[in-house]
Amino acid sequence: MSEQRDLLIELGTEELPPKALPTLSSALTEELVRQLDDAGLGHGAVESFAGARRLAVLVRDLDAKQPDRQVERLGPAVKAAFDGDGNPTKAAEGFAASVGLTVDQLDRQQTDKGERLFARLEETGRAAAELVPEFVAQAVNKLPIPKRMRWGRRKVQFVRPAHWLVALFGKEVIDFELLDQQSGRATHGHRFHAPQAIELAEAGDYATRLEQDGKVIADFGRRREMIRQQAEQAGRDAGGEARIDDDLLDEVTALVEWPVALAGRFDDDFLRVPQEALISAMEEHQKYFSVLDADGKLMPRFITISNIESRDPAKVAAGNEKVIRPRLADAAFFYDNDCKKPLEQHAQGLAQVVFQQQLGTLADKCERIGALAGVIANHIGGDEQLARRAGALSKADLNSEMVYEFDTMQGVMGYYLARNEGLPEELAEALHEQYLPRFAGDTLPRTKTGQAVSLADKIDTLVGIFGIGQTPTGTKDPYALRRATLGILRIIIENGLALDLRELLEQAAARLEGRIDAARVDEAFDFVKGRYRAMYQEQGIATPVIQSVLALDDACRKPLDFDRRVKAVAAFQQREEAAALAAANKRVSNILAKLEEAPPEEIDGALLEDEAEQTLTDLVVNAYERSEPLLEEGNYEAVLALLAELREPVDAFFDTVMVMAEDPAVRGNRLALLSFLRDLFLNVADISLLQE
């Protein structure tokens, strides 16, 4: 068994881009480990370390040497390897030389391309210390860095200037150069607390020595959790709860190596400004965590994570208070200015803002949203006039100073301006709800007006972008149509809205007349069908179940109806009768598909000869009568439960009755029965597609 030692690689740099740090760290680790694995070097656990000034990987119990292995190499075809007299050609001699053998030491092997020369070699494993420098260089070279830079007279390029390189295999230094840095055993601690070099005796000492002697918590995950806990405690100490956004937490973790949470205050007067703007100013500009009270209202407190242990923490907190004051004052200034104008006045400027060159300005889009929102509101029991006005004002806040400064305030600022102006509360809510849901699992519009405006906005964009031929391709979806379409489906289904989506797509296209190719509405509708599939697959619904409902165009028109059908078929599929009925439906579909003309539209009782076909006919007629009220209610699960009773009569029919009878009248009558049977199931879904 090969000797095993810990391997440590650390690259020290100037401060790395905080948002890119987790990605750089994982990419370095994954690529290095992949190469070690490919080389057959066994190892134990792998630890990643990432800080503002370092990327490091510690591989536990790495084999000191590759195992010896047998390598097989194919050479030229035997026909080309020897001449007519059986003497080796240059091809044979060249191959033998390339593998360090003589021609008579080569074997022959039969392949699908004929007999070829063959060499079996014993390859001695290389030492890990010989392989690591190349592996590290390749891993660093493959890091996902959009733009590499060069500094001073250096010729090497990297995301930031490199300052040191540690490469330890156990207690020994692996000697190589990378990014103009010679490898060694000296790492560096905190820039201010412990700037001196720290000599590592062996690789496994890395994290402990950095923490004890260098004032650096090298483990990103541990440092992140420390910051979370400190911020939460600081929030409790301030009498509230720290608002911890995961992305901000990651960024702050990447900025500091020795985290110390400090609390600060700001003037109560700033609380008149929308709290979303204040939170945005603190989080985006200063990387502060805000503090909320028990009702979720912003308190005049904040938490900053310092990278040093100060002798006078109060002075550091005061410095941060001084820094945040101008930021919050700017937000207050923008808000006060925006409140001086009504939303109608803000909306006037949208006539000069292009939404999309072919689809017109934002003013044009708002006009379309208002008209369609009114139609939707009328269908779902909302206030048509309120929805029209909300749609017309839906993008007005994009012309405000607040949104220009804080883009996350779109919709939010509209809500506050509408309330400030004294507009109806539901209209104000709708201006915020129009952007919901913003991501998978996000909350949905609560008000009828908000639902109408959100749907109208998303449908207008979907139809417009498809109408000008800019459909999503592969991973490219610049207008986020996939997300918008899933949002449309969720709003309709989860709010129980009985809307015909196909009809709404056509109405949106009519309002875009002259700007788009209206024929492309079909493509937009097909795109919606694709989102049905993605949405239900995400919920764990089997693909054949989804396909069985997608097969019915009318079912796809109404998302709420589609949802009921899918769930009914999913429940039906679990029944023991499902497989047999799916097979029977498949058989019926195949029979009917081969007909050159449609079967009779009625069943003639006088032509029923067999007891099994008489029984099935009676049951089919009875099922039609019983299922009609259930279908009107949309109770598809009850319909399928009713049809499950047909399993045995259907089996008996196919066991004893010859469908394609010689008598044309009898044959036609039996085909009519099968057609009625299939239509019964098609009232819910194409059950034949459940048979895999």
Describe the structure.
Helix content is 50%, strand content 14%. The chain is of the alpha+beta class. Strands 1, 2, 3, 7, 8, 9 and 10 form a 7-stranded mixed β-sheet that branches. Strands 13-15-16-14 form a 4-stranded antiparallel β-sheet, sandwiched between helices. Helix 1 runs antiparallel to helix 4 (128-141). It is flat and about 100 Å long.
Share of residues in helices? 40-55%
N/C terminus separation: 50 Å
| Main sheet characteristics | 7 strands, mixed
Name the overall outline.
flat
**What count of helical segments does DSSP give?**
27
Structural class category: alpha+beta
Q: Any low-confidence stretches, pLDDT <50, length ≥5?
A: none
Give the amount of beta strand, in percent.
Answer: 5-15%
Quaternary structure annotation = single chain
Radius of gyration: 36 Å
Average the pLDDT over all residues and give the rounded result. 92
Please provide the count of β strands.
18
Pfam families: DALR_1, tRNA_synt_2f
Main location: cytoplasm
Protein name: Glycine--tRNA ligase beta subunit
EC number: 6.1.1.14
